[in-house]
Amino acid sequence: MRFNKWLNKNASSLSGKTVAISGSTGGLGKHICRYLASLGASLILLDRNRARSEANKAALKSEFPNVEISLITLDLVDIFSVAEATERLKELSPDVLIHNAGAYSIPRCTSNSGYDNVFTINFASPYYMIRELLPALNGRGGRVVVVGSIAHNYSVINDEDIDFSKVKRASKVYGNAKRFLMFSLYELFERQSGATLAVTHPGITFTNITSHYPKLIFAVIKHPMKVIFMSAEKAALSIVKGLFEPTEYRTWHGPRIFNVWGLPSKKKLRTCSLFESKRIDSYSEQIYLDYKKKIEKSREQ
Question: How far from 67 is each of 36, 93, 173, 285, CA to CA, in Å?
Fold first, then answer.
């Protein structure tokens, strides 16, 4: 493993710990899983595609024969899949939840959560899961690690269009969802006792989430991207850093040079006012309650 020296300095054994990770079959996710397995963690892989999840499990078992791996099917755009996966997670009692899954430029629709699908995948569903798992995580001193994005700079909350369903530009739609995810959790964890939060970001790297361009354009840019930006293997170190060092209110772990290149360092965020952060917090709690109502209603039927 290329970054053993960094791991030896910045990480420690995770033997006896169970880590759940969403988006484990993606470009970042696979590397995060390898790092976790090398440190002795038991893994819970949360993915939409069962076949890809099984293949990832087989690859990890081949490299790390003693790693314990459980699989949970999770489709973040489907509120009922999210509810079922969350209940299964409660049974397995992870010590750490890593929210890594995301979607950038995809066909837009309103999901069965009632919100835009990009907003649902990147914020609303993860927030619901975290809220539901928090009591148990507080009790065992667990941690939530989320993957934020520098794209959160591209938007500001809009009270008339919370989920940016009326916005077409992908960077703004994605950035709004990440802004909600990051700052809602900063506020939420300020009220917690026991569990801790780490907000991380990988910078810009070549993963599935960057393959949204038309095929011809993507074929042209993918090789320069690999040269200019960090590898997913290196970018994943910021997320690993979050496992061992929580982030204080409005700080994050990410590449040290312009938030794009280099090994991870902790930085203070000055990209969202306190007033806006509190508004995001208020909307987030209402969205969580909306999820609860829809899920409870479906169970009664």
Answer: 9, 17, 38, 37
Tell me whether residue 141 is exposed, middle or buried, using C-beta atoms within 10 angstroms of its C-beta: 0 to 12, 13 to 18, 19 or more. exposed
* Side-chain-side CA neighbours of residue 60 (13 Å): 31
pLDDT digits (tens, 9 = 90+) for 204-258: 875 555 544 555 545 554 555 555 678 899 999 999 999 999 999 999 999 999 8
Q: What is the CA radius of gyration of the chain?
A: 18
Task: Look over the chain and give the mean of its residue pLDDT values, rounded to a whole number.
Answer: 92
The predicted-structure confidence for 26-53, as pLDDT tens digits, reads as follows: 889 999 999 999 999 999 999 999 999 9
Amino acid type, 144: V
Alpha-carbon gap, residue 123 to 128, rounded angstroms: 9
Residue 22's closest CA among 113, 110, 84, 85? Answer: 85
Nearest-5° angle of CA 154, CA 156, CA 160? 130
Can you list the domains of the chain with their CATH numbers?
A: 15-300 (3.40.50.720)
204 burial via Cβ count (<10 Å: 0-12, 13-18, 19+) = buried
Helices then strands (H, E): number in the chain?
Answer: 11, 8
Quick one: CA torsion of 113, 116, 118, 121, rounded to 10 degrees?
-10
Helix (H, G, I), strand (E, B) or coil at 119: helix
First-to-last alpha carbon distance for the chain, in angstroms, is 51
Q: Is residue 99 packed enough to be buried (19+ CB in 10 Å), middle (13-18) or exposed (0-12)?
A: buried
Q: What is the pLDDT of residues 64-110, one digit of tens each?
A: 999 999 999 999 999 999 999 999 999 999 999 999 999 998 999 99
Beta bridge partners of 79: none
